[in-house]
């Protein structure tokens, strides 16, 4: 078994187009990391707020009949089924190659149907080091990755986000105050009845 270093130097991983033998003797007929025998993502879904990336991810997973694998849930909770944040978040990146590889299932056995790993982390476009980290991790196989980047008109997005943020900021405190006022009123009514 090759030594996997947490420094994430240039990757020994390959994403072959043809079946490749892995450690357990099975053939990996999907893009995978031959060195670790894991089904690594070959599809990266990147998006912004309100671009539909979560909807697209959900549809791909729900309607692919198992052909899309999201990996396992990490310590970040259920959101990590969709968003691994590995290539962008410095804290996740420092966990190392082995940590990310273990988040993905073993390569399918010979003759198994094709399965594609997907990492749908919308924030990869805002993390400065994400492209560099992807290049370091995948090495020469980087060109075989498929990126889907969900975009929308920035002015419309800004307006929608502004409405959401200002509405929430405006209504939440007022709702909390009205709840407190309601509780106080109920308490006073109960005291008067005594």
Automatic annotation (TrEMBL):
InterPro entries named among the record's database cross-references: P-loop_NTPase
Protein name, entry field: Sulfotransferase domain-containing protein
């Amino acid at each position: 078994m090759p030594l996997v270093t947490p420094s994430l130097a240039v990757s020994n991983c390959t994403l072959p187009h043809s079946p490749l033998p892995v450690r357990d003797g099975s053939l990996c007929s999907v893009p995978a990391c031959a060195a670790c025998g894991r089904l690594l993502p070959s599809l990266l879904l990147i998006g912004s707020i309100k671009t539909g990336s979560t909807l697209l991810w959900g549809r791909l997973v729900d309607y692919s009949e198992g052909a899309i694998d999201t990996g396992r849930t990490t310590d970040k909770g259920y959101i990590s089924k969709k968003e691994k944040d590995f290539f962008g978040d410095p804290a996740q990146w420092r966990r190392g190659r082995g940590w990310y590889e273990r988040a993905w299932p073993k390569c399918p056995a010979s003759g198994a149907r094709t399965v594609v790993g997907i990492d749908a982390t919308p924030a990869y476009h805002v993390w400065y080091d994400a492209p560099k980290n992807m290049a370091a991790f995948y090495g020469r196989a980087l060109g075989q990755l498929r990126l889907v980047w969900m975009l929308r008109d920035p002015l419309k997005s800004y307006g929608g986000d502004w409405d959401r943020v200002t509405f929430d900021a405006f209504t939440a405190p007022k709702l909390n105050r009205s709840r407190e006022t309601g509780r106080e009123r109920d308490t006073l009514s109960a005291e008067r009845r005594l």
